[in-house]
TrEMBL record:
This is Pectate lyase superfamily protein domain-containing protein. InterPro entries: Pectin_lyas_fold, Pectin_lyase_fold/virulence. SUPFAM superfamilies: Pectin lyase-like. Keywords: Signal. Residues 1-19 form the signal peptide. It comes from Selaginella moellendorffii.
Length: 513
């Protein structure tokens, strides 16, 4: 009788084990569907980490579609400034609109670029005031000729860094799995619903050693993610955030000098509701020392859309790191970049590979969608140093032998959703000593229903990565002996072809962008 009980228990255990192995990492609950508001369930790792909710990205955190351009305040025609170069005339138009009062939605007005060819390049075009839109007449009507670009970057859109309120700060006292919204603190005094906060985590020597990164990383490196407090509980001294954390805060690897805390911040110095849209821009790739089309930093609730760019970015090492050989560099919050075409005629044959679209810290909640890039030996869809998610590349395509990857030092919370690079690669890897000692480049990131020639995805002792429903000719053949493979699974819930869209639907967000 005891033997029979043991066999029955063993049979039940094996059945549960097989079911767990077959359970997708994300699935649609059986009694819900995508037509109504769906309910998604998530499988966790043995440490309790799970795939995060990526829905709150892009303009207004995904809650509002990109609005129509506000009323036109200045219309600019080619040569309108009486010069063959239109740089000063465009900057003057921007300055005129920047001096106007914003409307109830925070928009000051639109600078309309008429049909024709505008010659720009004497200096950077700068937007540093909220509510200003540059709107062309269409990619087939308005052309920006930047062949004589003398500045490092053609368009600069920037505010000022956020100001930290140091008087309200509290330590994290309990391990927080990646994908969680709840943090237990040493005290919740001074925190209220609606507060903007920064979750700050400093890497400790013991954490770096656990990650096997002692040869590449140094203690004291800071990591931040911005959030809004949804609820505060005095019963267990906890707060709930609006968006999950994209990394694991493990108290076993924190100490007095290298801890994790929550502090109130103000982001008032940033600018918002700024945009570039509806034009084509070209540049001579061989012109020395210049090349970035756009740098966007300390900006929130902004967008670029319906642009066609040719031969931007160079490989000139005198650039600041965030501009190094980059076409578009985004370090903003709640930014959408969509409906873009980036084409490179001359491909780099040596030296650093150029970047097409690069996301940099302190940027987060960035959405890149419906983007096509073409060219060889380049990084097409990339993130920089230690950027915190959620950040999403959705429905993007790369033609040529190019690579999509988080590039360096523990970028977290990145989603490649329906990315197609048929002749190139998608990588979440340990870059070890490359560059400045990049080490583990990606953590708690996901490739979902992608197509590429090569797919390389690792996990590390303290962080997971997932590749789910992905199609590739070469899978993890380059990481053997270097790192452990990530969670690579060809099985998807067939009702979830796009994780990003399913999560948006589950969160009740609008279907349009």
């Amino acid at each position: 009788m005891e033997t029979l009980k043991f066999l029955l228990l063993l049979s039940s255990f094996l059945t549960l084990a097989r079911a767990d192995q077959q359970q997708p990492w994300v699935w649609l609950d059986p009694d819900s569907d995508l037509e109504q508001k769906p309910r998604l369930s998530y499988r966790s790792t043995w440490q309790g980490d799970r795939i995060m909710d990526f829905s709150a990205v892009g303009y207004r955190g995904g809650m509002d579609p990109i609005p129509p351009a506000p009323p036109v305040k200045v219309t600019l025609f080619p040569g309108g400034g009486g010069s063959s170069d239109d740089t000063e005339a465009l900057q003057a138009a921007i300055n005129t609109v920047s001096a106007m009062q914003p409307d109830e939605q925070g928009f000051r007005g639109t600078v309309k670029l008429a049909k024709g060819t505008f010659n720009l390049g004497k200096q950077s075009i700068v937007i540093n005031t909220s509510g200003v839109i540059i709107d062309g007449s269409g990619v087939d009507q308005t052309l920006i000729d930047a062949h004589s670009l003398e500045a490092q970057v053609l368009f600069r859109i920037h505010g000022n860094p956020a100001t930290t309120v140091n008087s309200t700060r509290s330590a994290v006292v309990e391990t927080v799995p990646s994908g969680s919204k709840t943090l237990r603190l040493s005290s919740v005094a001074g925190f209220s619903e609606g507060d903007q906060v920064s979750i700050t985590w400093t890497w400790s020597p013991q954490w770096i050693q656990m990650m096997n990164m002692s040869d590449y990383w140094r203690p004291g490196y800071g990591y931040k993610a911005e959030r809004i407090i949804k609820t505060v509980s005095t019963l267990d001294s906890s707060i709930q955030l609006d968006i999950p954390l994209p990394f694991r805060l493990d108290t076993n690897y924190l100490d007095d000098a290298h801890g994790a805390s929550v502090e109130k911040i103000s982001t008032a110095p940033r600018i918002g509701r700024v945009a570039l849209q509806n034009f084509k821009a070209v540049k001579n790739i061989t012109f020395p020392g210049t090349g970035c089309f756009l740098k966007m930093q300390d900006v929130e609730d902004a967008w670029i859309t319906d642009l066609e760019l040719h031969d931007f970015s160079g490989t000139i090492l005198k650039y600041p790191r965030e501009l190094l050989h980059t076409s578009i560099a985004i370090a903003g919050t709640r930014v959408t970049a969509q409906n873009l075409v980036l084409h490179r005629t001359a491909n780099a044959t040596k030296g650093p590979k150029p970047f097409d679209i690069a996301l940099h810290r302190p940027g987060q909640q960035i959405l890149v969608r419906n983007v096509t890039v073409s060219g060889n030996r380049e990084y097409s869809f990339i993130t920089g140093d230690s950027i915190a998610g959620p950040n999403v590349f959705h429905n993007c395509t790369g033609f040529g032998a190019n690579t999509a990857q988080p590039h360096m030092r523990f970028a977290t919370g990145l989603l490649y959703d329906n990315l197609r690079i048929p002749d190139g690669g998608i990588e979440m890897i340990n870059r070890r000593w490359f560059g400045s000692g990049h080490g583990i480049a990606a953590a708690f990131s996901v490739a979902w229903n992608t197509e590429s020639k090569s797919l390389q995805v690792i996990s590390s002792p303290g962080a997971a990565n997932w590749a789910l429903g992905c199609r590739a000719q070469e899978v993890n053949d380059k990481i053997q002996g270097i790192s452990e493979p990530g969670f690579v699974d060809a099985v998807l819930d067939p009702r979830i072809p796009s994780l990003f869209l399913a999560q948006r639907h589950a969160a009740g967000m609008p279907a349009v962008f």
